[in-house]
């Protein structure tokens, strides 16, 4: 990858240790993927949760922060591994929380936005059509490419900080027109879709696209950005998908043919029985769960409102926890609207700035988890320590409340 | 035919030798290797239960979470990292993990890509291999 003279100086260390560290990572990655050069980004989204970064990740972030590293562009951050306000009341061990708080402090020192969420595009990070960004969080990358018409590769931990500190990212993959073309087209003709269906459709697409860019026809005209959020999260949990062309929604893709650059592509019909297979695969238990988890990715304030209505007049059964995960911003709005209060009246809790898949679930004593999130079900089941059930939200609520 | 010599592309330079650990399917360090032991824990892995420590780790592709680079780095930090990694497709997580391991912990873990499954088909876990990522060559034997 070609570096210009200013970038060469950064690599030599003329602009300080933090930028040099960043450039060493970015230049090696650029070479590895065959990028031609580094290009400017409008925003970054980074990872700073202890569950996956471990002590080594704390050292990486602190090395950046303590050697003068500052984010060169507006930067948001994925959820933390603990609820940053209420972690004690969720039973999080002190030493675990302390490591997470070190990550928070280093991140803040570098000038990052304090919105710990995986749905930054609904909360605090709003690129426009055509903007190049460098985002970690695979589900958000799908949303950026498919709905916003922005351009992002799925940026790996470590590289995320490098791009944010440099304000640059290697040009390859989804930044290039020819790599964004649809190569396979899925079609839905199933009538009404449940909350679970949107996630299962995404999961099916992720599993069957391989390394191809998919398109999807047949979403209802009433589809919401929340439904697309969960569809994209299902897809990126099941495979390497970073973009789905939704003709009529995705900028520049009014038709499948336009999305495919005029080429003919394979067409795949998604049937009820395909979705049944996904459900059978992800729904691995029928017993009463220790934990019910909603909000992987984070629920919007509208989704919290729906949950509150569903829980109205119901009480959570003894011995079961139910957590609804959201951003701190949606949490504040839900508080002001009385939504949190009505959810908590049922015995459920609203947890913010963290999420289930990056929480220490096993250490908190959860052996069984029931969810309507295909992403959570996939992650938890691959670790093999916790049993997972996968059902629609309404069915879960009916099963665990009275 | 014995693959006594395989060619690939060096992504992070360095030389290494050691026993091969060969996975024939997609591999990830994220939720897939226990950093405190170096043991492969991924329920879907064909080398589950094996240790990556000191091995020349072969797999075709990476998969899963973008946090794999940190899982890799933590495994190295705790002294349980592999000697080298050889893949078919580029797995960015180990490229980034290896660059960070060099800077933070002074550990050199060469990374190569472009070694196809066909080229490494005869290779078995336990075979001793040596590699030079600068030259992009893996040799069977010392």
Note the main attributes of this structure:
heterodimer, A: 402 residues, alpha/beta, Aconitase, domain 3, five-stranded parallel beta sheet, three-stranded parallel beta sheet, 13 strands, B: 142 residues, Glucose Oxidase, domain 1, eight-stranded mixed beta sheet, two-stranded antiparallel sheet, globular
Kindly describe this structure.
The complex is a heterodimer of chains A (402) and B (142). Chain A has 402 residues and is of the alpha/beta class. Chain A has 3 domains: 5-177, 2-Layer Sandwich (Aconitase, domain 3), CATH 3.30.499; 181-279, no CATH class; 283-400, 2-Layer Sandwich (Aconitase, domain 3), CATH 3.30.499. Chain A is built from 16 helices and 13 strands. Chain A has helices spanning 5-12, 17-33, 50-66, 94-109, 120-123, 138-148, 159-166, 195-209, 225-238, 256-259, 272-282, 301-311, 328-336, 339-344, 374-383, 393-400; strands spanning 38-40, 44-46, 75-77, 134-135, 168-170, 184-188, 214-217, 266-270, 291-299, 321-326, 349-352, 368-371, 387-390. A 5-stranded parallel sheet of chain A has the order 11-10-9-12-13, sandwiched between helices. A 3-stranded parallel sheet of chain A has the order 3-2-4. A 3-stranded parallel sheet of chain A has the order 7-6-8. In chain A, helix 2 crosses helix 3, helix 2 packs across helix 7 (159-166) and helix 8 packs across helix 11. The longest helix of chain A has 17 residues, at 17-33. The radius of gyration of chain A is 21 Å and the shape is globular. The model of chain A has no long low-confidence stretch (mean pLDDT 96). Chain B is α/β, with parallel strands linked by helices. Chain B has 2 helices and 10 strands; from the N terminus they run E-E-E-E-E-E-H-E-H-E-E-E. In chain B, strand 7, helix 2 (92-105) and strand 8 form a beta-alpha-beta unit. The radius of gyration of chain B is 13 Å and the shape is globular. Chain B starts with a strand and ends with a strand. Chain A binds chain B through residues 21, 24-25, 28-29, 31-33, 47, 52-57, 59-60, 63, 136-138, 154-160, 240, 379, 381-384, and chain B through 11-12, 30-32, 35, 41-44, 63-71, 73-74, 76-77, 90, 92-93, 95-97, 99-100, 103-104, 113.
